[in-house]
């Protein structure tokens, strides 16, 4: 706490009750008053004690106020006997995946849920899971990679350029994209997001800001990618003539910035919302509380940061390739939205699922070898206006490593006319579900407007490919 000498007995002498509020006050003052003199700290603590209701919702000291107003011991929450209503789309979904959703539907805050056809098991809410709650947000229901998204840029470059300048395009992908924990750009963009007040309001975000600046415009590992390929539009409904265009498609999230936000608030949620063992990953934060409000602000900032990263990725590539942007489509998953369903405001978690409200545009990729789909949402209420975020895994990463070989992947990619830079056997195209079957299973959720066929794919890994 720097030079500040504050102990629990000092807070007791101010008149604080001998309960959890003492520990909360010590922790909060450590975060928000480091470097302040003891007189200032005591005056703030006295003011909160005198009128705690005036500080509820305050980002700095609201947690102390809540501890004073709610000084009873946190009790274990029990699951409901009945599940909230739900709908499952698709048939090739494992029982383990369904069980994860069933557990989430028994939370006392759950209102409705759904599984998308790309669903497979994950931590807490399954990938492809949708869960609507009342005034509660579940950090693990959002996921670790907050605001992960797809971003498609359609350029005015003739599609013939893809074959004629293949070497130039490969070089651009290799030089102007960065992946994984350690690759960063030498020059960092001065983006407006770093001027947001939220960075200064929440100490965790202030501490993480240098990391966010350093990782701006980079992509994660695993299934994250940047691809150059062929966009085919079936009609002019997107404002461009039907035809084939050169496109850039990226998939990544909020990097280490979002991951550390998620980990911190998952711990906080588990501490204040104890649940049965099988449901512990579903610990929630009440949005009427300081922690709930704080997480909501941090989550939204992480989502905006992920979008800014994609903006920078595409800016760098378009500058290297040439041409102008004609259209951009972006949709995200691993997030929670405030939405009204059947006249009721709910918190809709989509973990590995994407919004598909009426008229909402999105891009649903398949794998490094197969075409993805440009879609428009139909606003299906049974899916909570959601759709899949991809094809979904048929085999886990561990299974893919053991089942598929580099030579098999290279052979398939050659047949499909796809060049891979980086990548691992974990992301073998054969490890994913059939995208055609997935799209057929959600024909009531989205309309197909076009396709994206990858031609040059960049992922984390050796530059020469798997």
From TrEMBL:
Keywords: GTP-binding, Ligase, Manganese, Metal-binding, Nucleotide-binding, RNA repair. GMP binds at residues 223-227, 333-334, 365-368, 389-392. This is 3'-phosphate/5'-hydroxy nucleic acid ligase. Binds 2 manganese ions per subunit. It comes from the Bacteria. It comes from Capnocytophaga haemolytica. The keyword Manganese applies. Mn(2+) 2 binds at residues 251, 333. Mn(2+) 1 binds at residues 145, 224.
